[in-house]
Design brief:
single chain; alpha+beta; 6-stranded antiparallel sheet
């Protein structure tokens, strides 16, 4: 029984750090997560600093906003499970705030892995928004169909089927589909260790 109680206490104590990491991986401010989850920035800050244990409702709101399961925040890490298989018909839809972008999960979750991947479907003329993004980690994108253009630190890179791009996401970056045809790509995000 003591182990069970200690396990619960450990999961609760790690929850704030997992929330902070998931928010940082998206490059979101407290306010941006608050806007998406319906919680206040102060509440999110308290949860991240382990000053407050969220209700299950609050945890579900934050998890949904981040495109995560509630289990991500309360599961114990399983370092002994080094393999994840994602079947084509069982792919989860990943949350994205970008219009014209659909992401289907093709990888295991962050935590036991440093990389996460998605098959990305990008509508014609869709883009990442008016402001360049900056966040920790790296991205590797392989264009399968259509065309994509990336601007990284002011340099433009135009990609066609079979082309790939790999860059550090600490550099200001943006993407867009410059054409009238949809694009499809395999998109990997690698977190900093």
């Amino acid at each position: 029984m003591t182990y069970f109680v200690e396990s619960i206490e450990q999961a609760v104590s790690e929850l704030g750090g997992k929330l902070a990491t998931a928010r940082a991986e998206r490059g979101w401010s407290l306010q941006q997560l608050a806007d998406r989850s319906g919680l206040s920035p102060a509440a999110i800050h308290k949860i991240e600093k382990s000053g407050m244990t969220p209700t299950i409702t609050s945890l579900m709101k934050v998890a949904s906003a981040l495109g995560r399961s509630v289990g991500y925040f309360i599961e114990e890490a399983d370092p002994l499970r080094p393999v994840t298989v994602v079947r084509r018909d069982e792919r989860a839809q990943l949350y994205t705030s970008k219009r014209g972008l659909e992401l289907q999960n093709v990888s295991g979750r962050y935590g036991p892995f440093f990389a996460a991947g998605a098959e990305a479907f990008v509508e014609p003329w869709a883009d990442s928004g008016p402001e360049p993004m900056v966040h920790p980690g790296e991205e590797l994108v392989l264009v399968c169909e259509g065309r994509l253009a990336f601007e990284i630190e002011g340099a433009l890179y135009e990609l066609e089927p079979g082309d790939s791009i790999h860059f550090r996401t600490t550099c200001p970056h943006a993407w867009r589909n410059p054409g009238a045809e949809p694009a499809r790509a395999i998109w990997l995000a690698i977190r900093s260790s």
